[in-house]
Amino acid sequence: MNITTLIPDEHGDIEWPDVDKDRRMVLTLGSFDGMHLGHQAVIGRVVELAKRHDAASAVMLFDPRPAFVHAHGGNAPAVDADALTGVDERLVAMEQAGIEQVYVVRYSLAFAEKSYIFFLGQLTGKLGMRTLVLGADAALGAGRKGDVHAIANLAAATGVFELDVVDDRGPGEVRIPRDWKPQMPTEWGEPADPLANANKAERRAWSKKHQARPVRTWSSSNVRYLLGNGRIKDADAILGHAHAVTGDVVHGEERGRSIGFPTANLGADVTGYLPVDGVYAGWLVDLGESSGNADLETRAARVRDAKDAPRWPAAISIGTKPTFSEATGRHERVVEAYCLSEDWLELYGHTVRVEFAGFLRPQVKFDSAQDLADELKRNVEETKAITA
Predict the structure, then answer these.
(1) Where are the alpha helices (DSSP H) in 130-266?
(2) Same domain flag for 84 and 233
(3) For the Riboflavin kinase domain, which residue ranges apply (predicted)?
(4) Do 106 and 204 sit in the same domain of this protein?
(5) What's the pLDDT tens digit per position in 13-25?
(6) How confident is the model at residue 333 (pLDDT cuts 50, 70, 90)?
(7) CA-to-CA separations, 328 to 228, 258, 320, 321, 364, in angstroms, rounded
(8) Which of 148, 166, 184 is a domain's end point?
(9) Both 125 and 153 in a single domain?
(10) Handedness of CA 286, 289, 294, 297 (dihedral sign)
(11) What is the rounded distance in angstroms from the CA atom of residue 223 to the CA atom of residue 104?
């Protein structure tokens, strides 16, 4: 798969690469954060149509996420903490789906001000796009005026390209609280859907109480909400794969080692959306020695090779170590994973991928280190069962 990075200038204009315009191109565009089942349906349709018409299959990937850029008025911080996945993860998923070309566009407010008519003219004239594939509620261009109806009319009027709309809604819609914040479950075990057995009246009452808004079930927004409430299995079902974060292993306080549970501690620079505080079952994948600030293609290659990398079931903790934080005075949020392995694992300085399979329990303060060790033994057995 070929990856081309495009950086708009201060006016939002792009210097497009030279392409073979004699070959048709089937293209889709978006941020594809999480590469969930809806995204996979759209990408799959691009590959299908490209094969059918002997055309090139392409994706225009916006980075950073448009929602992130607009939310910060263009003055976005360096790290998008709400991004479900890094760009490298999305690129590998696209390659595995059969995409030939990805254009990674550095999204900016100036670029966003281009009208959808101008933008589509660029795609057809500069890249040779002849089929545009979009999800059912996609919209692009200034003011998001280029919805599927407007684009369909433009395609019919010009005859230059075709629009193919994919039903990427899946099971339909769910409702999530308008201004929700991550909420750690208070009970042990995977949290249930609070509306699973509710009747219509109860659903309406819940929606009114929480000022809930409708979102697509297959959406990045819904996945973030589920992860922010510890509902890992529901989130993984929408993603079609285990949610994961990536980071470098650093030296911690070695508290876990002192009670018989040495952990791999991730540094502050974690890529991927961190679920709410708690203890989880999942896996740890060793991607090898850290390559520092590697370029995008190098990072993507490491993700691609993860399928063959060493991996172990792991009990994963996200939180502030409440049993020890009062004594140490350290309350920062940390991610640490205890690998279920008989061997001693030397992972310091390595990049690891932590995958989440289920929620085990909330973070609580235990009366003693021994009480914590006893609970961790139970968590290990639960992890074994979930990851078997």
Answers:
(1) 148-158, 200-210, 220-227, 232-239, 255-258
(2) no
(3) 238-388
(4) no
(5) 999 999 987 889 9
(6) confident
(7) 27, 15, 11, 10, 16
(8) 166
(9) yes
(10) negative
(11) 23
* Boundary (domain end) residue, out of 115, 136, 166: 166
CA atoms within 13 A on the CB side of 37: 19
Task: CATH number of the domain at 149, please.
Answer: 3.40.50.620
Which sign does the torsion angle of CA 128, 131, 135, 140 carry?
positive
Confidence of residue 330 (pLDDT cuts 50, 70, 90): very low
Expressed as residue numbers, the domain containing 230 is 175-238
Contact present, 284 and 248 (Cβ < 8 Å)? no
259-281, pLDDT tens digit by residue?
557 899 999 889 999 999 999 99
Decide if pLDDT at 324 tops 50: no
Is 371 strand, coil or helix? Answer: helix
Burial classification of residue 232, based on how many CB atoms lie within 10 Å of its CB (0-12 exposed, 13-18 middle, 19 or more buried) = buried
Residue 328 has pLDDT above 60, yes or no: no
Opening angle at CA 227, ends 384 and 79, nearest 5: 115
Same domain for 159 and 52, yes or no, is: yes
Written as six digits, the tokens of 171 are 């099971």
Query: For the chain, how big is the Rg over CA atoms in Å?
Result: 23
The arithmetic mean of pLDDT across residues 302-310, rounded, is 85
Distance CA 234, CA 243 (A): 11
Compute the distance between CA of residue 302 and CA of residue 292 in angstroms, rounded to an integer.
Answer: 12
pLDDT tens digit sequence for 139-181: 999 999 999 999 999 999 999 999 999 998 889 999 999 999 9
One-letter amino acid at 282 equals G
Residue 348 is classified by DSSP as T
| Residue 364 tokens, joined | 């609580």
Q: Which two tokens stand for residue 353?
A: 């991928």
User: For residue 222, what are the CA distances in angstroms to 134, 166, 263, 278, 312?
Assistant: 20, 19, 31, 19, 29
State the pLDDT confidence band at 322, using cuts at 50, 70 and 90.
low
Number of domains in the chain: 3
